[in-house]
Amino acid sequence: MLSDIAIAQAATLTPIVNIASKLGLVADDVHAYGQHMAKLTQATVNRLQAQPAKAKLILVTAINPTPAGEGKTTTTIGLTDALNQAGYQAMACLREPSLGPVFGMKGGATGGGYAQVVPMENINLHFTGDFHAISAANNLLAALVDNHIYQGNALQFDTVSWRRCIDMNDRALRRLTLENNTHTGFDITVASEVMAIFCLATDLADLTSRLGRIQVGLSTAGSPILASDLQAEGAMAALLKDAFQPNLVQTLEGSPALVHGGPFANIAHGCNSLVATQTALRLADYVVTEAGFGADLGAEKFMDIKCRQSGLRPDVAVIVATVRALKYHGGVDVADLNRENLAALQVGVANLRKHVTNLRQHFNLPVVVALNHFTADTEAEIALVQAAVQALGASLHVCHHWAQGGAGAIALAHAVADQAQQASTPWLLYADDLSLTEKLDTIAQKLYGASGVTFSALAQQQLARLAEVSQGLPVCVAKTQYSFSCDPKLRNVPADHALHVRELRLSRGAGFVVAICGDVMTMPGLPKQPASSRISVDADGRIQGLS
């Protein structure tokens, strides 16, 4: 069996200008990075944004992730290829991989098997440099804050809340003491407010304005100090100007894909850039996008943050599940997942049921279930999941896109296209005018099945300070992706738990409040055996071991 990187390296790629031509673009509409990657020029994006959107928007999400893997990105790519094979004009909108997971535990984020975006190595590593630009803009602001204080502190900083960032898992950087004896720390770049702003801004003017609204600290009088007070937003926007242009690549089957932006869904809002999505909606008839991790995180934030701010509404949601992952939620150890276990599967299917019910009841989203097939799945196991989904009044389609590419997801493609043509009126989970506490209660009780929300002493103090400024802002819950609860060990659909808010952070420029819950960290650490130990370069300069 070939590895993902071997499959990608063996592929013959189409010149990127030819991929662009499939979308009605000409050579001057793109700025090429070699033969197989390009950015859409800002002029092209501006021209397209002035046109009406024409595409149906398909949101791919999943059950709570497990060590067994679910294949959400693989399904997004496979579905895009299948739609094109079936005669529809489709393109994918994905997030860029972060170097932290690439060298850590999760690996890359370009799909797998015969459902990948390519060139796989470039996309998973430095790509077109977008994340480096975001890190630089973030850290420029930190340097300007420190320099302002050093040069006399005319703004009378009392506290500094702005943190530095780096696109790498490095737990040693979580908490630092600076030369002036102030305390700070690093977040991973994907969790930075600059990343969130980058992914939610509508154009360069909006990007600059949002950067200026970043709150970096408080004065001795208790007044907020913004990036615009330091005249930082212009220089930050200059660093981000080229990165802000969406990246065009292709799947193994030559389907066009915009891969742009990359916030995590457990500690950030977990969606690709709005400008890429809006651009794609004007270039294709079907746009397939994904929201990170399970639907309790990524899909909720897609709706309550990205859709709330932009007016977007998906036409249909696809929930990805696997028999193996459902057995894991039913209590089976990873080593035993290849053995048939109908009893555990019957228990674990409750996780899928909860996600389907959440999207249909609380967002009014039509749902199609994609069962990502593994060779160890038995007919009895597939039939059990099929019956559970049918009992909910939804459809399930067994997919083989990992092994067969788009041909393995044709049935899913037709079902999704048919459903997308049906009229739907998705709604948001909560109203703008609710208090921050009420919004958290709504998410916790309706989506997570929690009894309610508890706050640490620090969070209670922050809640009081944010009461006025947070009015009208959505909340971005940062919690473990592995459970509906705050405890990653609580699989399936846990009961008798509360959402514990440890800390609240205002992302004024991004336009939301981050609620950090449980033990989740905004700077992840590396596992005992990092993926980096398997990665190398051969004598011909070909990367090995990347997955």
Automatic annotation (TrEMBL):
UniProt keyword annotations, A-Z: ATP-binding, Ligase, Nucleotide-binding, One-carbon metabolism
Binding positions for ATP per the UniProt entry: 66-73
Pathway this chain belongs to: One-carbon metabolism; tetrahydrofolate interconversion
Catalytic function, reaction form: (6S)-5,6,7,8-tetrahydrofolate + formate + ATP = (6R)-10-formyltetrahydrofolate + ADP + phosphate
Superkingdom assignment: Bacteria
Alphabetical list of InterPro entries matching this protein: Formate_THF_ligase, Formate_THF_ligase_CS, P-loop_NTPase
EC top class, as a word: ligase
PROSITE patterns linked to this entry: FTHFS_1 (PS00721), FTHFS_2 (PS00722)
GO molecular function: formate-tetrahydrofolate ligase activity
A Pfam family hit: FTHFS
Family: Belongs to the formate--tetrahydrofolate ligase family.
Name of the protein in its database record: Formate--tetrahydrofolate ligase
Organism: Methylophilus glucosoxydans
Classification lineage: Bacteria, Pseudomonadati, Pseudomonadota, Betaproteobacteria, Nitrosomonadales
